[in-house]
Amino acid sequence: MTLAPGELKACCAGAYASPAARFLLGDSFHPGGATLTSRLVRALQVGASATVVDVGSGPGTSAIQLASETSCSVVGVELSAESVDAASRAAAAAGFLGRVRFIVGDAEALPLEDDSMDGALCECALCTFPDKRTAARELARVLRPGARLALSDVTANAGRLPPELIGLQAWVACIADARPLEEIAALLEEAGLAVESIERHDQVLRELLDRVGARLQLASIARSFGEGVQRGRELAASARAAVADGMLGYGVVVAAKR
Amino acid sequence: MAVAGKTQRKVDRDEVFLEYTKSICPVCKRVLDAEVNVRDNRVFLRKRCPEHGRFEALVYSDAELYMAQQRYNKPGTLPLEFQTEVKDGCPLDCGLCPEHKQHACLAIVEVNSGCNLDCPICFADSGHQPDGFSLTYEQVELMLDRFVAAEGEPEVVQFSGGEPTIHPQILDFVALAQAKGIRSVMLNTNGIRIARDRRFARALGRLRPHVYLQFDGFALETHLTLRGKDLRRDKQCALDACAEHGLTVTLVAAVEKGVNEHEVGAIVRFAVAHPAVRSVAFQPVTHSGRHVEFEPLERLTNADVMKLVAAQVPEWFQLADFVPVPCCFPSCRSMSYAFVDGDSVVPFTRLIEIDDYLDYLSNRVIPDPDVRQALERMFSSSATPGAERALLACESCGIDLPAHLDDLEEKVFMIIVQDFQDAYTLNVRQLMKCCVAEITPDGRLIPFCAYNSVGYREQVRAQLSGVDVAPVVPNAAPLQALLQPTRYGSKTAANGART
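Above: the input entities. Below: the structure tokens describing the complete assembly.
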């Protein structure tokens, strides 16, 4: 990897704001879609008076879902200003103006007060943060004691991934720097969170890769997005094989601040 | 109470009671209470006539799927006007009466009762008959006007029969419907005239109705059993004529148990490859009008047909690629769309999580209302080729491929699976939301399955032809002792229906 961590973060955030990412991933930018998000939302155990942070909020879909399912207030933090604008527009259009807001910010230096949040959501984002230890500490810092973090992420058996899955494209696709589920849990424990549950959801990653594969196939039928399509199809196929071999997966960790 | 020396034990019923509804007696057509039950993961409708006894029929062969589909139930839309009043209750007030839950997405005009075939199966009981009817231009105009009055901008009208292409004014009717602003005009035909009359095919090519071509399979046996004739050459000629004259085609396959179930996959492959064909509609044979004897507990249902497609074309379609259609009752019709380019086939369901948009019972925020609307247009009884355009052009769905739309349209392929109800399977709950209507010459819009099961067809035919028409009774195995043939080849009750 030749990019500096700062460049990497910007590259990831930028890639997810691109039309190609919207095309490939649709509204829900993470495996499991709205159904898995609902599961994370329930795990937070928050009510209408709570304020919850969504770290790596992307197009804002989950933040809006969180607000509508719990009536809580949500702050979405996202590195891409373009995504923050789009998410703000989506929240206004869905009638959540005021209750759901989005700010530009870095997960490794959250622009939020200590102990200020009643919950934190982090979906398929930790894998794209170069300094995971700092990001975990930041999540712990902004939560008030007893408040929960519900996190989902791509998991990988590091060192056993084929070479094509650790390049820049794979980094953007959450794969290159993904960690084993146990390592994610250990990171959170180390940051001051007590892990309450760990669940494997490899099936949702399989489904997402199938969807990305189908959309790439359509792009090639429509002759859209040029030559990157073929490379993308190879990458998706390779990722599917890695899931089948148990080297790549998806997981959920719920933890409470001590 | 315990019998001496033996403890009596309570026993569970062998079925899950699911719904209480209304139906009709298949023999005398009187309205009956009915129940829907699940046994062995299959859904059955049961009713009892005080005079003719107990009747039970299979309505869906996969209970789990049947239940999952209930979420795809879109709130109905009120038509601009109703044609009848509520008097005796469903299904006797058709229609549409103000209790009906949905407007008509698609309306059928049967222009005649005569046909150039005498198929062993024909829900319209048509054929080479001396005592039929043939509508006049004035009658057709009145019918279309009433449809326009009810709908404002009607979506689809389908000319049917009989065989509509042998009506001397069929081209005028098509042009008239187009002039009335009806968005899509379909011609439901066996294709014989298109195959054999080059001038007619050319004239159709100028009007460009969508051709809804009866096409049941490739085996001689299939043709002989369902149509009484080998029509394979005619079908091929008709399709080639359609391609030559720029007509788009839906292949319509009536699928009957033990006859052409094995041909479902071959029909899909053929359809994908033929330049004129944009879609296939599979319909388990409707046991109304004339049909071969069947066993109501073992009939073919939508679930069977979808599974046949998945089993026979596994590299392209899976069961999960079929979406229940929300405008009608979701278990009545399922559809699948796919993008096709040579051997590359991408079902639409693989591209977008349709559940997120078409689940009408979930409390969840719809990710995007524009996407829902576009999907509703695609997965609808009025969907015709091109319905996917709204979605592809919809920026917010993320598919957003407007620049390539024109290229893609010819690559979209659609499969429709539709089970029509007969007098055995009729469930008023489904009927009340039916969005396919028969227009009668007095301007009523009668839900299709009511028209064919309750007795409306016989009444309208008697009125139009001036000849008495016997009430048709399904040619079901358990009813054989009661049945005798009608003049048109269907069956009626031997001692007169109602005593």
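Note for the figure: Chain B touches chain A through 26 residues (CB under 8 Å).
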